[in-house]
Design goal:
Belongs to the FemABX family. This protein has about 375 residues and is α+β, with helices and mostly antiparallel strands. It contains 12 helices and 16 strands. It is globular, with a radius of gyration of 21 Å.
């Protein structure tokens, strides 16, 4: 395998030959992360382009050395017994680019749990974490990747509850195809939701909540900032979302959509959805404190699910959750909301580091732990 720089156009053309890839591995995402230097990479097997990656370089203060980050990537053949054939030339290329270390998040699943299991786990005082429950599925590819990464000297980044500075290790997803790969109908997906979710969707319709696709980014951001104050998190600036919408929509007009739920003229919920091929994500959400009883959040989620089904998506991804099932934990409300969709909790392999310059990497690691 030969790894070398490719153009964003070559990168995007390769992604279009795949059923899906993370939106964090699209060329457009490099434009969103403007504070990082970006590079599109290609793996060549002879003359054939066999894999691609978006690499983001974060420079160390006062030194021209970088952490090379591949969020939810690279896009390669992970179902291989010879992972070194892909990762060794990657490390060599990044070292030449001045990287002191590499961080990546292999897009491979390791374990899954059904919504019913998660619900039972929350109700069981003896269960504290997802890992306390036997999974419904252990993925052989994921297990093989983890074993090979250890053997190749990569280091897993241990996180608290699955949340990290990078991407979440645990997510909640609604499969939109059945076990045989056949598309699920809207009715089937709706029946898979719990009674509360179905009731809330019906109530929103009865109350006259209307859900539309729109372009009013300022309205979304105003409600998002309101949500951030209420739920005690730091909001991103409006400029970030402008860049995100402009970059992703320029790459593909169906890549990103803004959704708005209104009740009698009042904006009660708003979301951002992203789709790459057969994978659809709920990326950002906001809701008003007033009129929560009209269930705008449930209405907008159902509309996005319907849109994903119509687009032929195979999975609807509600993104990150922590691995807590402790009923007293403040994070458990997030997983309870997502469990109502009837999907499944999914564990990915997580993020892994490869030190290329051990002295600089250790200094960086110490700095990150002290933050």
């Amino acid at each position: 395998m030969d790894v070398r720089t490719i153009s964003p156009a070559e990168h995007l053309a390769f992604l279009r030959t795949r059923s899906s890839a993370s939106f964090l591995q699209t060329p457009a995402w490099g434009q969103v992360k403007a504070e990082w230097r970006r590079e599109s990479l290609g793996w060549y097997d002879g003359d054939r382009l066999a894999g691609v990656a978006l690499v983001l370089y974060r420079q160390l203060p006062k030194v021209k050395r970088y952490l090379a980050y591949l969020p939810e990537g690279p896009v390669i053949d992970w179902d291989t017994e010879q992972l070194a054939a892909w990762l060794t030339p990657l490390a060599a290329h990044l070292r030449k680019q001045g990287a002191f270390g590499v961080r990546m998040g292999p897009p491979v699943v390791t374990r899954r749990w059904t919504a019913a299991q998660v619900k039972e786990g929350i109700a069981d005082a003896g269960v504290r974490r997802l890992g306390d429950l036997p999974p419904t599925e252990r993925d052989a590819t994921g297990a093989r990747v983890v074993t090979q990464l250890h053997e190749l000297g990569w280091r897993p980044q241990v996180t608290d509850g699955g949340f990290a500075a990078g991407q979440p290790q645990y997510v909640f997803q609604v499969p939109l195809v059945d076990a045989d790969g056949k598309p699920r109908s809207e009715d089937d997906v709706l029946k898979g939701m719990n009674q509360l979710w179905r009731r809330n969707i019906k109530k929103a319709a009865k109350e006259g909540v209307t859900v539309t696709v729109g372009t009013d980014l300022e309205a979304f951001h105003e409600l998002y900032v309101h949500t951030a104050r209420r739920d005690h998190f730091t909001p991103r600036p409006l400029s970030y979302f402008r860049t995100m919408v402009d970059a992703l929509s320029a790459e593909d007009p169906d890549r990103i959509r803004l959704w708005f739920a209104h009740h009698q003229g009042d904006l009660v919920a708003a979301t951002i959805a992203v789709r790459v091929g057969t994978h659809a994500w709920y990326s950002y959400g906001a809701s008003s404190t007033e009129k929560r009883e009209v269930r705008g959040s449930n209405a907008v989620q159902w509309a996005m699910l319907q849109d994903a089904i119509a687009a032929g998506a195979e999975v609807y991804d509600l993104r990150g959750i922590t691995d807590t099932l402790d009923a007293e934990d403040s994070h458990v409300g997030l997983i309870q909301f997502k469990v109502g969709t009837g999907g499944e909790a999914v564990e990915y392999a997580g993020e892994w580091d490869l030190p290329l310059n051990r002295v600089l990497y250790q200094a960086f690691d110490l700095y990150m732990k002290r933050r």
